[in-house]
């Protein structure tokens, strides 16, 4: 299964539920090996989320992150949860966004002590910039009148290991302070997720943590005071706002080049392939810039609504022929319905939302070359409305 969406992973049930509450009608998606995800659109948003629970620890996080990446081919991968603060200026309930993640358990034991051999993964520059832009606004935190204090967002390193740290004076705590004194927070899954993303062509990954304790021996007290639930609610709010911004960035990247001009203006030369009788042309070109138009003996529709209606029929035919499975068919039809409704109800027409829906369809049907090419031609038709 493929498509343009964002994977969000959590380790704890309380974290999972905080994100799930923000999804409109999440639908169960079963992986062949038994892993269950839920896929839904953000309430009052355009972004689609595939939500998964990985459990505690970097190892399980890495395995299930890899599984989610292979299953959904996401635009980005976000990990949301709680963490312990390692510095006193970070308040309970604040949000920490990793600029890079330390896997701090690597090392070698020698006669004169344990020597650290850490691994580190940096967040991509683009994802970091988008996260900072979201943090500069206050809308992600909701109505400030509903909070006793608007949580701050801190950017910096996060340390990820295999133990829960709840002391500032233990040998383990002193070792972290000595070797990772710039880390803002400590947790148990970020390194696994970062490694999985690194192995998949540097997929953008962002680790977002709400501070639920101070890793200082007071964890039982802060948990009793419900700081875990409050911290994860703040982290989930920031994560979903970030997901919306990442989805919008993907749409903008498809529509504009680095100079701000539309991609359709990059190439004026037209390559026309003509098919007659029962032949059918897909695309014949070394590099394709701008729109692609596919036509047979008759011209393709020039009205986007009519073209999308034609895609609906083609999806039905592809399913009947066994080219699409039932889940992919239903998801693609739902995106086409969204595109049709957006064209019908928005004045002026929201071509950005329509394009995003059609791109998701193109991702879903990518294994059916003829159908994917037809979707590409409709995307070009819609973008021509602007």
TrEMBL record:
InterPro entries: Nucleoside_phosphorylase_d, Nucleoside_phosphorylase_sf
Xref: CDD domains: MTAN
SUPFAM superfamilies to which the protein is assigned, alphabetical: Purine and uridine phosphorylases
PANTHER family: 5'-METHYLTHIOADENOSINE/S-ADENOSYLHOMOCYSTEINE NUCLEOSIDASE, 5'-METHYLTHIOADENOSINE_S-ADENOSYLHOMOCYSTEINE NUCLEOSIDASE
Lineage: Bacteria, Bacillati, Actinomycetota, Actinomycetes, Streptosporangiales
Protein name: 5'-methylthioadenosine/S-adenosylhomocysteine nucleosidase
Nucleoside phosphorylase domain sequence ranges: 6-242
Superkingdom of the source species: Bacteria
């Amino acid at each position: 299964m493929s498509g343009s969406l964002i994977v969000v992973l959590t380790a704890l049930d309380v974290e999972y539920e905080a994100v799930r509450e923000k999804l409109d009608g999440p639908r169960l998606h079963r992986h062949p090996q038994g892993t269950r995800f839920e896929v839904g659109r953000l309430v009052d948003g355009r972004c689609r989320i595939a939500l998964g629970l990985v459990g505690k620890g970097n190892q399980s996080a890495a395995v299930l992150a890899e599984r989610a990446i292979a299953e959904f081919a996401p635009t980005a991968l976000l990990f949301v949860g709680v963490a312990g603060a390692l510095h006193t200026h970070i308040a309970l309930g604040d949000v920490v966004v990793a600029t890079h993640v330390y896997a701090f358990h690597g090392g070698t034991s020698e006669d004169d002590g344990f020597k650290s051999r850490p691994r580190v993964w940096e967040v991509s520059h683009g994802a970091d910039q988008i996260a900072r832009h979201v943090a500069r606004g206050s809308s992600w935190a909701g109505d400030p009148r509903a909070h006793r204090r608007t949580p701050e967002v801190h950017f910096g390193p996060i340390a990820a290991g295999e133990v829960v740290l709840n002391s500032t004076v233990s040998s383990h705590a002193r070792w972290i302070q000595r070797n990772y004194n710039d880390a803002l927070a400590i947790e148990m899954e970020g390194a696994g997720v970062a490694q999985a993303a690194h192995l998949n062509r540097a997929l953008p990954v962002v680790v977002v943590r709400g501070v639920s304790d101070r890793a200082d021996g007071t964890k039982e007290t802060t948990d009793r005071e419900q700081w875990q639930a409050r911290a994860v609610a703040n982290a989930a709010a920031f994560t979903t706002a970030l997901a919306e911004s990442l989805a919008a960035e993907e749409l903008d990247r498809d529509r504009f080049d680095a100079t701000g001009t539309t991609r359709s203006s990059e190439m004026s030369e037209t390559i026309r392939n003509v098919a007659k009788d029962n032949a059918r042309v897909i695309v014949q070109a070394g590099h394709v810039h701008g729109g692609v138009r596919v036509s047979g003996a008759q011209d393709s529709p020039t009205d986007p609504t009519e073209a999308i209606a034609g895609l609906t029929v083609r999806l039905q035919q592809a399913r009947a022929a066994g080219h699409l499975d039932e889940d992919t068919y239903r998801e693609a039809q739902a995106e086409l319905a969204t595109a049709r409704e957006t064209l019908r109800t928005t004045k002026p027409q929201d071509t950005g939302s329509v394009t995003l829906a059609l791109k998701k369809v193109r991702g879903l049907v990518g294994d059916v070359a003829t159908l994917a090419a037809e979707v590409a031609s409709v995307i070009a038709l819609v973008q021509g409305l602007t």
